[in-house]
Design brief:
Blueprint (H helix, E strand, L loop, with lengths): L1 E6 L4 E10 L2 E11 L5 H19 L3 E5 L7 H20 L3 E5 L1 H8 L7 H11 L8 H31 L1
Parallel strand pairs: 1-4, 4-5
Antiparallel strand pairs: 1-2, 2-3
Helix pairs in contact: 1-2, 3-5, 4-5
């Protein structure tokens, strides 16, 4: 199964695709969509088009998006929310199920600490996906989001299997 992780951002939208085979994870691809233009609508459209192309090329089976955190700048938070809307819309339009994870949940899943810094996240992504060449910090975060989603899917799959077995 292929999992697409998306780290939403208006300037830079990180994406990463991993392959999941049981508990084995492997890197497929990663990159950063850079918005084009100065006005908001064309920038969002450019992110939409680039992310749509990522899905068309890499054919993920499911997706995960980082939840937005509220920062000090209200206008910045609203713009990030609009980019997050694109990050949710594109995979939904492709028929993918989408998981949503808070930044601390992603860090806890990948690093083991909910308040890990970006360097720690990137280091652990490299450790768990040997040989990966990461396109940048946003792509590293996106790969971590995909990894977090795969761990949650594996856990829920185990729980579902255990419940089915107990009901027999």
């Amino acid at each position: 199964m292929r999992v697409l992780g998306i780290d939403p951002g208006l300037r830079n939208l990180g994406w990463g695709v991993i392959s999941v085979d049981g508990s084995r994870l492997s890197h497929v691809a990663n990159g950063i969509c850079h918005s084009e233009g100065t006005e908001l609508a064309p920038r969002l459209l450019s992110l939409f088009d680039q992310l749509s192309e990522v899905i068309e090329i890499w054919q993920p089976d499911t997706a995960a998006v980082e939840k937005t955190f509220v920062n000090k700048d209200g206008a910045g938070t609203l713009k990030l929310g609009q980019a997050r809307g694109i990050a949710m819309l594109v995979p939904a339009r492709a028929g993918l199920s989408i998981g949503e994870y808070a930044p601390n949940s992603v860090k806890k899943s990948v690093v083991g600490v909910g308040h890990a810094d970006k360097n720690q996240v990137e280091h652990m992504v490299k450790m768990q996906l040997p040989g990966v060449k990461i396109a940048g910090a946003d792509a590293a975060d996106a790969l971590a989001i995909a990894m977090c989603h795969s761990y949650h899917m594996q856990s829920s799959g185990r729980i579902t299997a255990a419940l089915q077995k107990a009901a027999q």
